[in-house]
Amino acid sequence: MIPGGLTEAKPATPEIQEIANERVFLVECQLKEELHLGKKGRRGRPSHREVKPQLEEKANETYEEFEAVEYKTQVVAGINYYIKVRVGGNSYIHMKVFKGLPQQNSTLTLTAYQTDKSKDDEITGF
Fold first, then answer.
1. Which of 46, 94, 98, 104 has a beta carbon 3.0–4.6 Å from 30's, enabling a disulfide?
2. Is the Metal-binding keyword given for this protein (predicted)?
């Protein structure tokens, strides 16, 4: 594996399905929450929600399924997981989930996603 490059695609494992289902938050949502000041000038805490409802809200869709089928990884200052998820019938999405290094905050973060994908669409860096 080349540092910074994507691995070859592999079938999703139970661990990858768990990452897809994990309680993560969108970077965009986190930034909005951090800018919002709560009572007495304290910062609001980012809202952590499961990824599926976040994607449904952002994409204005309701997904019948949410099954990770394939993934690639990218080693950066942590690991980016690029996951192909079947969301019903012949519909797929690609999502990018970042996991920090063990000595850092290792919260999983959904950093990007792509909709309108098919089974044959290759997972690429985005």
1. 46
2. no
Q: 93 pairs with which residues across the strands?
A: 85
CA distance 32 to 27: 9
Q: Is the pLDDT of residue 88 over 50?
A: yes
User: DSSP 3-state assignment of 33?
Assistant: helix
Residues 6+ apart with CB under 8 A from 87: 61, 63, 64, 65, 66, 93
Q: CA angle at residue 66 from 17 to 62, to 5 degrees?
A: 150
Mean pLDDT, range 94-111, rounded to an integer: 80
For residue 42, the model assigns a pLDDT of 35
